[in-house]
Structures are given as structure tokens and as C-alpha cells.
Design brief:
The protein is of the alpha/beta class and 475 residues long. The protein folds into 2 domains: 239 residues, Rossmann fold (3-Layer(aba) Sandwich), CATH 3.40.50; 170 residues, Nucleotidyltransferase, domain 5, CATH 3.30.420.240. Helix content is 40%, strand content 18%. It is built from 14 helices and 17 strands. Strand 6, helix 7 and strand 7 form a beta-alpha-beta unit. The protein is elongated. 38% of the residues are buried.
């Protein structure tokens, strides 16, 4: 009798602990979900569990959402098991009314996640704790959709799948694009469009419901890249690279890295070197480092540029790389102010702007005067898209010293190769400013970056001072 009472007490304590902490539930349920794999925990498990738990509790209490969540983390980090398999099972233990829509790039994988979650719910361990709280309805118990006695629902779908008539309190998107298909622009566009036009609107209450995307980066324009580029203010971004880098978000997680590694037990140096060899630099950069292009492509490296706190002597000049339209699908217009003095260049400021023609004309005037335009300044505009019209309009309406640049005769890669030696030799510096990071990121990712308009301006600026392979003053 005493043993039975003791057992019941222990079960009651375990139940209470698991309800209070999703992380404790994750640890306790591990043997149910992965009976053949020994549990190995890392700092990210507790960190992500706490974030997910806070979202579930907020929704339960009806509190307003702050942002949707994007989590970028390496493969084999138990991301799917934690977020897509265990999290819904824990939510139903504490709030069985919760409704989920879960999605992946394939229906097979999405259904597998839903089935594994249901297996946990139907296990003896789970039923001993929460079997009296709710049950899965026998007549609503399919692999792709099941419902409990509190009308909580789990609906599994895939990119391109229909979710008509379905709604969720939490939408979980787990790897919307497969690494194998990441190079296909069609596949990426389909995934991004499906999320935007089909899945995005399926929250039961957009004010409280949350969308959570967890994925390894597979391309600059994958769903993470698409959302972070177009609506960064709407997302809380968690980025955990295998090796410590500037991409880590939030930065305070750096204290958990050991020997510069995110999970030394599973992703030690030897293992990572093996992955580098197998995946190549681009595959490794995306899937392990969560940067879909290598930190240094080799053509333009970040450490080639010095950062100046003061302007150098000389006149300021300008180059402009105009876009076709203000559409988000096209490159923005890029404007660069720079100085050239004693065979050295200083980039004073670079801007990306998305403006239609009349507003762009006005902005160019403001930009050049802000950066010290004088009667000795020259403004060169690349003669593509609206470039010719920009030159004509500026001459007619402003009197600025503006000219069409010469059309390029080489492709972009060849043009960057021509100027790379000048940059590597330390003759190009940046005036310290908030724009530095964006400019350097685009340079170091060239030629694989989503946009290269700032690099185009850099090439134009340096080419203004070359003749016959030699550097010369502006003449």
C-alpha cells in the first residue's frame, strides 16, 4: 500500500513538473519519442523550450502577440522533435483546446511529425499523466488530422497543400524547402508564395496567434531570407550557427558556446570538417552556419576594408545604380558617395532605396547635397533601366553635374575581379556609419547574394580612376 502511494505521489510530482516546464516534459518524454537514442541535451534545448512555452502561455491567457518567430539552427539538432513533435503534445497536456497547423516541404515528413506526436500522446506514460484530461476522438483520428475531446486540433499539411476551412492558434513551419531543391528558383518561389498567400492567413486570431518557422538556411531567398528581407520588424529572429559567428542571434547566447562551437558533443571540429568536405562551402554555410552563402566568397573579403572615423581630403563624387521599378521583387536603386585622394578611395555612404522615378529624382538631390556635393563633384549613373531618363531629368531640373556612365563590357564577376586587387591592397576604406554592415555583407557574399547593387556601385566608383590598368586621378 505504501509503495503504491509512493508511486502515485511520484507520478503526481512528475506530472506537475512537466506541466510547469516544457523543457522538463521534453526530457521526460525523450525515451518515448526516441527510445533507441540516448538523451543528450544542450543549451539550445532549454532556450527554445522556454520561448515556445511562453508563447503557448501567452495564447492561453489571450495576451497580444509581439512578433512571429523565425528559428535558424543546424540539422540534427533535434529541432523537429522539439518544436514539431513534442511541443504540440505538451500544449495539449496544459491546454487541450489549442489548435495547430503544422507544415513541411513534403506531406510525408509533415505526417510523420504529426504521427510521432500522436504516438507520444497515446503512450502509456502520457496517458498515465493526462489520459483523464482529454482523449483523441476516435472518429477524428487520421494521420494528417486529429482532434481531441476539447476540440483541440492538429492538422498536418505540406507546401502547396490546401488548408481551406482550417485555422490554428499556432502555425508551425518546419523546413519549408528541402536542401535538395533549394537551388530551384521555382521551388523557393512556390514555398514563399504558398506561405504568404495560403498559410499566413490561417491564424484563428491574428492578434494572439503565432507563426513559428524553424529551419536550416538553404538559400539566400528561402522562406527565412524572404521574410527577414521584406518584414524584419514583424519577426523575432533566433539564429544559432554551428560555429560562433556574427550571425548569432541573440548575441548573449555566445556565453554558451564552448571552444567556439554550439554543441561540441554532437558538432565537434572533426565532425564539422567532415560536413564541410561533404556539403561544400555553400552547403556548409547554409545548413550549419545559417548563412546561405559563405562568410567570405573569396572575391571580396570583409577584412580588406578599413573603417575610418574621419573623412579624407578630396572632392566627393557619386555613382548611382538605378533599379527598374520600386517593386520588392527587383533590386533597389543604390547610391554611393565616395572620395578619391592620393590613390585611395573612401566610401562616404551607400544607400539602398526603393522609389518610383519622381521620388528617386528628389532623393538623389537630397543624397548628394547631404554628402558634400560641390561644383567639382561628378555624378555618374549606370545607363540601364531608367538611367538615361534620370540623367536627362537631373540635368534639366537640377543643374547637377551628372553624366551617363559607360555601359559595362564584361560580366559582373569579371568586373569585380578587375578591382579586387585594389581592395585587397587596403586602398579602399569605409567612413564609419550604420550602412557599413549591409554593404560589407553584400560584398562578402558576392556573387551569390540576393542583391548586388551596392557592389555594382563599388565597381563603378573604382573604375572611374583606372586607365590602362593603372590608377589615376579623376580627370
Amino acid at each position: 500500500m505504501k509503495e503504491n502511494h509512493k508511486k502515485q505521489l511520484m507520478m503526481a510530482m512528475e506530472k506537475a513538473i512537466c506541466e510547469k516546464s516544457f523543457y522538463e516534459f521534453f526530457v521526460k518524454a525523450w525515451d518515448i519519442a526516441e527510445p533507441s537514442v540516448p538523451l543528450s541535451t544542450n543549451f539550445h534545448h532549454k532556450y527554445l523550450c522556454d520561448i515556445l512555452q511562453s508563447e503557448a502561455e501567452r495564447i492561453k491567457e489571450g495576451r497580444k502577440k509581439d512578433k512571429d518567430i523565425i528559428i535558424n539552427i543546424p540539422f540534427r539538432s533535434t529541432k523537429s522533435l522539439l518544436v514539431t513533435v513534442m511541443f504540440p503534445a505538451w500544449c495539449w497536456a496544459v491546454y487541450p483546446k489549442m489548435r495547430f497547423i503544422t507544415a513541411s516541404y513534403s506531406a510525408e515528413i509533415s505526417i510523420e511529425h504529426a504521427t510521432r506526436s500522436r504516438d507520444i500522446i497515446q503512450s502509456e506514460w502520457y496517458q498515465n499523466h493526462w489520459g483523464e484530461t482529454y482523449q483523441i476522438k476516435k472518429d477524428q483520428n487520421l494521420k494528417a488530422r486529429y482532434e481531441n475531446t476539447f476540440l483541440g486540433v492538429r492538422r498536418a499539411t505540406s507546401v502547396g497543400g490546401s488548408v481551406t476551412g482550417q485555422g490554428g492558434d499556432i502555425i508551425l513551419v518546419d523546413d519549408p524547402t528541402s536542401p535538395k531543391n533549394a537551388a530551384s528558383e521555382t521551388e523557393r518561389d512556390n514555398a514563399n508564395e504558398w506561405y504568404k498567400s495560403t498559410l499566413y492567413s490561417r491564424l484563428n486570431n491574428p492578434m494572439t496567434g503565432v507563426r513559428i518557422i524553424i529551419m536550416q538556411r538553404v538559400h539566400e531567398d528561402d522562406l527565412s531570407g524572404y521574410l527577414l528581407y521584406n518584414s524584419p520588424d514583424k519577426h523575432k529572429h533566433i539564429c544559432i550557427p554551428a560555429e560562433l559567428s556574427d550571425d548569432l542571434k541573440p548575441q548573449h547566447l555566445e556565453e554558451h558556446y564552448k571552444n567556439g562551437l554550439f554543441w561540441e558533443e554532437r558538432f565537434g571540429r572533426e565532425i564539422l570538417d567532415d560536413y564541410k568536405s561533404a556539403l561544400g562551402s555553400y552547403g556548409y554555410a547554409g545548413q550549419l552556419q545559417q548563412r546561405p552563402t559563405p562568410a567570405d566568397s573569396g572575391m571580396i573579403q570583409k577584412n580588406w576594408f578599413n573603417i575610418d572615423t574621419d573623412k579624407i581630403d578630396g572632392d566627393v563624387h557619386f555613382v548611382i545604380d538605378p533599379a527598374y521599378t520600386a517593386s520588392q521583387k527587383n533590386d533597389p536603386s543604390a547610391l554611393m558617395a565616395y572620395k578619391f585622394f592620393e590613390n585611395k578611395w573612401q566610401i562616404v555612404e551607400v544607400q539602398n532605396v526603393r522609389l518610383e522615378f519622381p521620388d528617386l529624382i528628389k532623393h538623389i538631390g537630397k543624397f548628394v547635397h547631404k554628402n558634400g556635393y560641390s561644383s567639382r563633384s561628378k555624378i555618374y549613373v549606370e545607363p540601364k533601366a531608367s538611367g538615361k531618363s534620370i540623367v536627362q531629368t537631373l540635368i534639366r531640373e537640377t543643374g547637377l553635374n551628372v553624366k551617363e556612365d559607360k555601359p559595362p563590357t564584361k560580366d559582373k564577376v569579371a568586373r569585380v575581379q578587375d578591382i579586387s586587387a585594389s581592395i585587397e591592397s587596403g586602398r579602399v576604406s569605409l567612413l564609419k556609419g550604420a550602412w557599413n554592415e549591409e554593404f560589407l555583407l553584400q560584398c562578402q557574399q558576392f556573387p551569390a547574394a540576393k542583391h548586388d547593387d551596392m557592389v555594382d556601385c563599388l565597381v563603378m566608383a573604382l573604375n572611374k580612376h583606372f586607365r590602362g590598368g593603372k590608377v589615376l586621378y579623376f580627370g
